[in-house]
Specification:
mainly alpha; about 210 residues; Arc Repressor Mutant, subunit A; homodimer; about 0% strand; DNA-binding
Chain lengths: ~210, ~210
DNA sequence: GTCTATAAGAAGATAGAC
DNA sequence: GTCTATCTTCTTATAGAC
């Protein structure tokens, strides 16, 4: 990785831990292994580093949204998959979503930085909302909608059903961001949540194992 | 209100909007209507103002927790109320919780400040977790437990049921903190959520109006 | 592109008059 | 308790040699 990218990477780490104002240019330079003045050969000033991070974040998000769209489209094409989706597959769906958000290093640091800086700049809270609220609700909603169409799940209001599926995941995520030691407990809760979700929304005529 | 308290109040407002590091002592003094040096007659330094806010917050939280405990105990004593709780009463319960968190000025500013400053200091994230995650789950769980005992609601896992009740409320709260203009929409969603929650967890033999 | 030296400015805090 | 004036320190950013 070249110096220019390493600066971005170390800056993101520091910003996500301490917030923009509490990170000094010299701290970033230190981590990269150069002196502060050298850093100005790569970026005009401190703000430019921050802006570059946001730009990079948007680039990755768009890339990823495209990937999701393709998955979504694929899913729609062979919607057969969703007709016979099992409880275990639903759990896998939820766990993957959760673990991706939680463990992807880039994603995690971005989210922490956004959490800290969101009230500083409306644009940042917009990014946060889109990424962690509106987009997941919309994507998960699409999948659940398909399962309802396929007759696997049953509801009068898919929007609320989606909220019931995703809100607990979101809450467990904010817990683990703050207290990583609660991850094991959170994963157990997540699984119990999805099993109960499935039981609640399963078509009445469908019988569950062991009941 | 005397100057000492007005400093605390204005400081909290500013910290909750911009974060500690982005608020200057002169800004606080300005709002109070004095010059920065005068402020040092009331507090030793900037950090002391912040500490006093946290102390005041803890004081209020303890006071409030006491009040909740009493309500809880009262509720337990005449649990009769919960035997015949209606969907509308459940909605009122959720809305009150939501609107209290959202509109109580002190609570709102504290929550925003905690959200911004939580990664600076572990103690702050602990306060946040307790206040907005663990305490509500525990309190709501107690109420729902009573409703299950009374036979109004039915579940094999009250803990997950509580998560299903509270997580959407928590999520709507974080939405409104960031985008207050979505409050009306959020309140509608909240009501739909609780109606669906009630339908999902209502005892099978219970028939719902209009179905 | 990196360094040392340093300028420029911001923000916290104090001194001392009133 | 509040003010003006000022000190001190910290941080960003630039100059110019290598």
């Amino acid at each position: 990785m070249d110096t220019k990218h390493r600066i971005l990477d170390e800056a993101l780490t520091l910003f996500s831990e301490k917030g923009y104002a509490n990170v000094f240019v010299a701290d970033i330079a230190d981590r990269v292994g150069i002196k502060a003045p050298s850093l100005y050969k790569h970026y005009k000033n401190k703000q430019a580093i921050f802006d570059a991070i946001i730009e990079e974040m948007n680039r990755r998000f768009l890339e990823q949204a495209g990937a999701l769209q393709i998955n979504g489209t694929d899913a729609l094409v062979d919607a057969e998959i969703y007709k016979n989706i099992s409880e275990d597959q639903l759990i896998t769906l939820g766990k993957n979503l959760f673990l991706y958000f939680l463990h992807d290093e880039y994603t995690r640091r971005f989210r922490k930085m956004l959490t800290i800086e969101q009230f500083h700049d409306k644009k940042l809270s917009d990014v946060y909302m889109k990424k962690y609220v509106d987009d997941p609700l919309s994507y998960q909603g699409m999948l659940l909608e398909m399962m309802v169409s396929a007759g696997v799940l049953q509801t009068e209001n898919v929007e609320i059903m989606t909220l019931h599926f995703y809100a607990p995941i979101y809450m467990l995520l904010t817990i683990c961001d703050r207290e990583p030691e609660r991850e094991t407990e959170a994963l157990k809760t997540l699984e119990a949540h999805i099993r109960q979700f499935n039981r609640l929304y399963a078509r009445n005529e469908k019988k569950h194992s062991g009941q």
